[in-house]
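Support case: user asked for a sample of complex input and structure output to validate their parser. Sending the pair below.
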Amino acid sequence: MNENDVMLGALNLGNINELFKDIPPDLIVNMDLGTPLTEMELINRINKIKNKNNRKNLFFLGNGIYDRFIPNLVNEIISRNEFLTSYTPYQPEISQGILFSLFEYQSIISDLTEMDVTNSSMYDGFTSLAEAVRMAFRINGKNEILMPENIYRSKLDIIKNYSYGLSLKFIFYNFGDNGKIDLEDLKNKINDNTCAIIAEEPNSYGIIDENVFKLNEIKGPSILITYYDPVSLGILKPPGEYGSDIAVAEGQQLGINMNFGGPLLGLFSFKKEYVHRSPGRLIGMGNDLNGKKAFVMTLQAREQHIRRAKAMSNICSNQALLGIAALSYLSILGSNGLRKIALITMNKSKKLKNELNKRNVKTVFDSINFSDNLFYFDNKELLRKNNVSGGIKLSELSDISKYRNTSFFSVTEKTDDNDIIELSKIIGD
Amino acid sequence: MYRQAYYNEDFLIDYNTNNDYYLDDVEDDYPDYIKREKLKLPDVRSVDVSRHFTRLSEMNYSVDLGMYPLGSCTMKFNPKYSDYIASIEEFNKHPLEGEENTQGNLEIMYNLQEYLKTISGMAYSSLQPSAGAHGEFTGILIIRKYFEMKNELDRRNEIIIPDSAHGTNPASASMGGFAVIEIPSDESGLVDIDALKAAVSDHTAAFMITNPNTLGIFDDKIKEISEIIHNNGSLLYYDGANLNAVLGITTPGKMGFDIVHFNLHKTFATPHGGGGPGSGPVAVKSFLKEFLPVPIISMENGQYKLDYRLKNTVGKISSYYGSFSVLLRAYSYILKNGNNLKNSTEKAVLNANYMADKLSKYYKIPYKKLKKHEFVLSTENTGKRALDISKFILDYGIHSPTTYFPLIVKEAMMLEPTESVTKKDIDYYISVMVKALSTDSDIIKKSPVNTSVTRIDEIKVARDLILTWNKNEKTLNKI
């Protein structure tokens, strides 16, 4: 006998429909979701769809999401069913594997950024930035947010969406002709109402801007929020070293596929004095009754399931598994490996700028760049005809009114030198 | 007898086994003023990284090990074909790669939007939110924008929520700038119509509920509720966390809801990954289409597009278009199972009712007998605490239910077996829950003992607050 019939019998029910007799008949629907497929048919169907994607010959996309090489061990680790098919560790005694790993993730990102504390992940870089603004407001209750005039439109959009009810004012500070922060302008805009300053390193032009390192001297009591590039920290000054109060980033580059822009990984770190005002889950270390090292979610009174309407954030599910990917990536590469990846990236940028300049495609700024490089170039059609992915216009990303006819070409350690030469021949003279 | 592995594992930072990941030497002629003083990442051989995580994974419970009946979490089997499909390299596109190069990805997203519309009885959907709570928040922003355009936002500044709601509901409403009005449930655990009528006013923007509710009970007064809300010019929001109870049987659209969010990592079998990534699409009735986040995916003449043409869009809610590889898994699950998804719903509800019926001989199961996909019991009558029973269960190689939720039931345990478990799994689970009642309290208070670690002093963890492996760190609260 079928087990469902046995179970229905135990419930004294004649058929399965009786389990749904509490749903008024006029609410019952007839839904067509199609004929079930065998696994083989499914894979065939998906393969047909996948073949509709193209890959262009030359790839120079970036601006936040990067095609980096991922050591195979990273994927092996995050594919383990014990991690992949577990839930949020509500029962810590039986979930030490995830908790231990996330505690290490918090630690490694704190070391990478030289910040005191890192939470166990947010959705992505942009929502992390928005949550950082909310957190700054909780810390000092002031209402003016100073932000770079060239900030990406989507970042600004999300910050605005996240700050309804806080009545914040967004004030934009200027950049000089060298593409770096105009410190005088910023200084003039800081006042008693300043809640936070958002600074980007590298900035939205792709430039490594040493003026960011000086903000600590002029910020006064306001909160310095830094949006950084995690791979760049293989070589660049980390946010903690120059006085950031909150440091956030997109962590996709740390061993996570591009995935058409998701799922991503929001890195979220801060100074320890702000821990009780912070959003998201935190894993703490302690002991079990036998004195063994043990881990558990802590300070949950900040979170939605306890504090409800007064929670620091509504976040529940986060990006735990991708945090483990980042932890694995950084551990496999080590300090020297990450430093090399960062340097290769910068050297490729240098090479790209040299080759394009030689053929009269001029860089907009004379600067040291990380991955993204801005050129006086504005011809999408030429790129399309020649099978190039890249050339994202600044105006597609940012509302800044300057440099409207400029475009980005981005590199990673995967960018082939021959591809750089080829690009220069296509778009140069 | 169950015995979970335990390794006295070192932190990666303490391994010091000499990194062996080979990379060529690199030229460095950059100025010192941009460089960091020091960087101290772990120094570990790859083989040790691999062993470290293999050992840790053995110290972690998962759906692939056994029953995981966390209520409202829908821990069903995560099919492996979805994992394979999500790993196909051709789908691993850059988000700015352009419509002409990503027609395959866009087709998947378009088709999933269509499926979600059918499943929810709604007219349009957006796949952008990253998780259930993020979907709720998107819904709240849509509610805001809708009333802003009607010039009613100034007065419509409240959202009503039942006291049995998931914690994310009030948190999302409050993040969107609304005041939260909580109403009590009636004696049957459902929406108290009189309390709702009393709470509804000129200030009401929306009512946020899930149906069935967190007690697993379907509210058959839903049409009346919908009328009360809509007659007041307010909107009705559906928390889709419990959609596994009614998928293919009825739809939120039919029930009168205006906005729905889905939890793809619950209802559509994508893996939870120890806490995420999830995915929380939203769907709306046609009069709310113009407010959805952009882009949505549209199709014209067989070509798929990232469509930004929504007049009053709430704008962007996450960095790009949503959690594509999670969407791809969910799409594969729906495409594969098609009309059989209704059978899954039936099995999930049968499993929950069978389990509730058996356990009702031992535990008090409050409110109406007929449940949907989950149910809540109370240990109050047993003389034992829900906490202790939840720890005892772990010793038998099964995961405990959600505990102390919903808040309206004392000593609550919330169980959702899902359709993935069999009668044999359930009977075993019940036998353990029954055994807990006859086990000496001294023993039960010391459980679990077969897990990697025993009970943890959580108060001490919150007091000492050690949040990184940095040994020089002073405990945070003492500074």
